[in-house]
Amino acid sequence: MPRYAMRVEYDGGPYSGWQRQKDLPTVQGVLEAALAKLQKTDPKVAAAGRTDAGVHALGQVAQADLERPWDPFRLSEALNYHMKPAPVAITACAEVPDDWHARFSAIRRRYLFRLVPRRAPMTTERGKVWQVPHVLDAEAMRTGAAHLIGHHDFTTFRSSICQAASPVKTLERLDIHEITRPDGFTELQFDVRARSFLHNQVRSFVGTLERVGAGSWTPEDVKTALEARNRAACGPVCPPGGLYLARVDYEDDPFAGVL
Q1: In this predicted model, what pLDDT tens digit does every residue of 75-93 receive, in sequence order?
Q2: Which stretches make up the Pseudouridine synthase I TruA alpha/beta domain (predicted)?
């Protein structure tokens, strides 16, 4: 059975996360239903990461083994047709070796978080960014974020329901960029990279750093919270709407050269 890798983009707002759940709408459910239109046996899809309810993706990666060979472009076109009008799209598709795996072959995951300090309600981007009604000190947030870079026990920033075997992870990057928006406001974009993440880790980071930017915490308080290795020391966990699984990296990019 040939195996195909698919880069998947979706609006997570209407879904109860990526993973298939009984009687609940999920992104995996949408993709598997579309695949079921193309073959007789029930398809099984695996993904690079299980995004939570309300979390979006620009570059989720999934895999599926199909009954017969497909031209990758025609497969992506067929799936996009059958997924309409769901806000889910295959943006690239490639045939991969049988031992390639969307999750286990990944060497890095990149998340984007969008935070907009603005009092007026969001309209066209409601559910796509986290809005706070006060000014934030981005430089103080960067100073606080620097304490999180590296190899640490991230128990403080780990959900109580996290199923990872260990809270120890290596955070490669946590950059905070200030972007001038067309509406005149400054958006803070968090570029967060690691081989793998704990459940709610990125949202815990951003919620904590927002408190630094607002002046309720000092940058040094982030270091204190990290070293506490206690979930109670974490700042607020921010809402999911501003979080995007932006990209998954592999040693050999299966989508290299694919438009």
Answers
A1: 999 999 999 999 999 999 9
A2: 8-104, 145-251
pLDDT digits (tens, 9 = 90+) for 198-221: 999 999 999 999 999 999 999 999
Q: Which residue shows structure tokens 């951003």?
A: 206
Amino acid at 11: D
**Domain C-terminal end among 104, 119, 153:** 104
Q: How many domains does the chain have?
A: 2
What pLDDT score does 122 carry? 96
| Gap between the Cα atoms of 67 and 70, Å rounded | 9
pLDDT of residue 42: 87
The pLDDT of residue 64 is above 90 = yes
Output phi, psi for 201, to 5 deg: -65, -45
Q: Residue 131: which of 147, 143, 119, 145 has the closest Cα?
A: 119
pTM of the predicted model as reported, rounded to 2 decimal places: 0.96
CATH number of the domain where residue 83 is located: 3.30.70.580
CA distance 188 to 190: 7
Q: 41 near 67, Cβ under 8 Å?
A: yes
In angstroms, rounded to a whole number, what is the distance separating the alpha carbons of residues 67 and 173? Answer: 40
Just list the catalytic residues. Answer: 52
The parent domain of residue 188 ranges over 107-246
Question: What pLDDT, in 10s, does the model give residues 142-167?
Answer: 999 999 999 999 999 999 899 899 99
Amino acid identity at 160: S
The answer to whether residues 221 and 144 touch, using CB atoms and an 8 Å cutoff, is: yes
- Is 256 inside a domain boundary? no
Instruction: Give me the phi and psi of 4, to 5 degrees please.
Output: -125, 135
